[in-house]
Amino acid sequence: MTSHVIPSYLSGDALGPWGVFLQQIDRVTPYLGELAFWIESLKRPKRILIVDVPIKMDDGSVAHFERAIGCSTTPRAARARAACASTRA
Q1: CA distances from 18 to 15, 55, 57, 60, 61 (A)
Q2: Are 7 and 48 in contact (CB under 8 A)?
Q3: What are phi and psi of 53, to 5 degrees?
Q4: What are the tens digits of pLDDT across the range 19-56?
Q5: How many C-beta neighbours within 10 Å does residue 15 have?
Q6: How far is the C-alpha of 66 from the C-alpha of 43, rounded, in Å?
Q7: Is 10 exposed, middle or buried (0-12, 13-18, 19+ CB in 10 A)?
Q8: What pLDDT does residue 89 have?
Q9: pTM recorded for the entire structure
Q10: Which residues contact 41 (CB under 8 A, 6 or more apart)?
């Protein structure tokens, strides 16, 4: 993976879903041609919703499952998302 700016709420050694997202971005970038300049917009979402769901396990302990969702509301980000979606096979 190439070097990326890591959001302040993550540590560099445990990127989780954000790391997977960055790998996907790196994988599709060569196929975007002249639209590749939108990639930086995708890497910098306007808002991030972090959801934590506590689940009581069979042994009585509580496990927390967390999911982060990036949300960009700008028209340029919407066009870039559409461009990335169109490159999927």
Answers
A1: 5, 23, 26, 30, 27
A2: yes
A3: -115, 115
A4: 788 888 889 999 988 888 888 888 777 777 778 889 99
A5: 17
A6: 20
A7: middle
A8: 44
A9: 0.45
A10: 72, 74, 76, 77, 80
